[in-house]
Automatic annotation (TrEMBL):
Pfam families: DUF1611, DUF1611_N. Residues 137-330 form the D-glutamate N-acetyltransferase-like C-terminal domain. This is DUF1611 domain-containing protein. InterPro entries: DgcN-like, DgcN-like_C, DgcN-like_N, P-loop_NTPase. Residues 52-131 form the D-glutamate N-acetyltransferase-like N-terminal domain.
Length: 343
């Protein structure tokens, strides 16, 4: 049984960035810009905000005039709440003729100013972070088909981008492959999935099983990872995905140079080697044959020559393929080939 797709979302989008100053919290906006550019008209940033996607700055009225039909909250702060000082801007979007789409934990209709305005104007308030009903408890049973899971040393460093790039590369090779979204941005891109961090913990591994059901022997589900097994707040969702998806292959994702957990400066980022060992040890509980195919290294902040040298050095040091999927090239081809290599 495949998870039901979410209701078709109105578009194109105006990306709302609020007054965000931490780029890592704007991964929804960046993900939509990079993977659904045809649906993104512009961005709307409030005073005090310093994060930009590089899209044209627009008011809601200007975006509506350019064809936008929804304003998407493009940030996901810690806790997934909607600050009270954002409400006026969201109301402005409704009054300009835009529906509001949110991937936050907070429900749009629970905010009186939004609910009342939407009802008065006949506009939609759409919450993406809503899991399906009647998720089963995980069975732990092995099932047919192949699965790949991206796991991270931390949050917001490339697990979704890596999964999307690998799914596309598999399909380019004529392999039947699906990207399985587990967070609000991936769901907005793919049009379906399960928001894992909105699932009650006892059912999270069952949700991962539901997301990647039994399939034909040659079919691959490329499952978007969440959090980190070492994260002080989000390790639970990472472990549930690992146990429930029962991956045959892991790709470990890391941002070059990151030393501390995003938003948790007192916690060091684990090494790539620690992450590989921990993921395999825990993953063997539901798939004894699990293996790590290689490493996805986020080098977006480095120039091309420095990044190329780092990828080569890390591949030698770790003795496995190391690639930046956004740079493609031979390193990425080696990573794809190792993912698909016979066990």
């Amino acid at each position: 049984m495949h998870p039901s797709p979410i209701t078709a979302l109105p578009g194109p989008y105006l990306l709302f960035l609020g007054d965000t100053t931490e780029p890592g919290y704007a991964k929804t906006a960046f993900g939509l810009r990079d993977w659904a550019p045809d649906r993104c008209i512009g961005e709307h940033v409030l005073a005090g905000g310093s994060v930009s996607t590089g899209l044209p700055a627009m008011t809601p009225a200007q975006a509506h005039a350019q064809g936008a039909r929804a304003m998407v909250i493009g940030v996901a702060n810690a806790g997934g709440f909607i600050p009270s000082h954002w409400v006026a801007a969201l109301v402005e979007g409704l009054e300009a003729g835009l529906d509001i789409v949110s991937g936050m934990h907070a429900r749009l209709r629970d905010i009186p100013g939004l609910r009342d305005t939407a009802d008065r104007l006949g506009r939609q308030l759409l919450d993406v972070r809503q899991p399906p009903e009647a998720i089963p408890v995980a069975s732990g049973r092995r099932r047919s088909g192949k699965r790949l899971l991206t796991v991270g040393t931390d949050c917001a460093l490339g697990k979704k981008y890596t999964a999307l790039a690998l799914a596309g590369a598999f399909r380019d090779r004529g392999i039947d492959a699906d990207f399985r979204a587990t967070g609000q941005t991936g769901i907005l891109i793919a049009g379906g999935g399960i928001p894992m961090d909105a699932v009650v913990s006892d059912f999270a591994a069952g949700a991962a099983e539901l997301l990647s059901p039994a399939a034909a022997p040659g079919h691959w589900d490329i499952v978007e990872g969440q959090g980190s097994l070492f994260h002080p707040a989000y390790a639970g969702v990472s472990l549930a995905l690992l146990h429930g998806s029962q991956p045959d292959v892991l790709v470990v994702c890391h941002q070059a140079g990151r030393k501390a957990m995003l938003g948790y400066p007192g916690y060091a980022v684990p090494t790539i080697e620690e992450t590989i060992c921990m993921a395999i040890r825990l993953g063997q509980r539901t798939n004894p044959a699990i293996r790590c195919a290689g490493v996805s290294l986020n080098t977006a902040h480095l120039d091309a020559d420095v990044a190329a040298r780092l990828l080569e050095d890390e591949a030698r040091r770790l003795d496995c393929p190391v690639a930046d999927p956004m740079r493609r090239g031979e390193a990425f081809e080696r990573l794809v080939a190792e993912c698909l290599a016979p066990a």
